[in-house]
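Ticket #4471: structure output looks truncated?

Reporter: J.K.
Steps to reproduce: submitted the chain below (207 residues) through the standard prediction queue, then opened the result file.
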Amino acid sequence: MSFILLLLEWKDFTRQQIISFQISAGVFGTLGAFLGGVLGDYFAFLPRGRIYIALTSVIGGTIFYALFLFSNAYHSAVFWYSMFHLWGGWTPAATLRPICAKLAQNASERAQIVAAWILLEKTSSAIFGAPLVGFLTKRLFDATNNASDEVALSNREKADALAFNLFVLSTLFWFICAYFFVLMARAEAADGSMTPKRHLTRKISTV
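Returned output as attached by the reporter:
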């Protein structure tokens, strides 16, 4: 979030406009998590339904995030940022938590899964998140300065460089995420045990 605030500042948005980005992120992020849970439950009875919801969220969220990063007008930027939080936050409630709950046999296993999940998430974000973005952006600034023999870059040039690095890194890891969801879909298709059998419950109820 710190790099997003820096990006918005370099795009010459006012403080009131930057605050509106934070408010929209909180509001639409909450709505997105709720919508993800609703969609996950609605499509849970389809083969690989939850995983397809996650793939839709990852791909759509990547597109909306890219549109936000390269938008310089305030209204378009806040719109795409809101759509990113509304669309890109479905995976935990729609897919990850329900599948982890199905895999766990008891509360102890569920706690171990959540602990490993948080450990991997925090470790990867600490290594490949802000430090890597800062390192790549600094290198890009240095290369631009050396090429143009200028002492300082304009805010627009800094914003473009930072937006490019954020786009490359986020897209790379989201595509890796989508790849593992595809592997999960193939594993579920081979197993077939993770999809609830609605037609069986209907037959039992009619009997």
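Triage note (M.O.): checked the attachment and the full token line is present. The radius of gyration is 21 Å.
Status: closed, working as intended.
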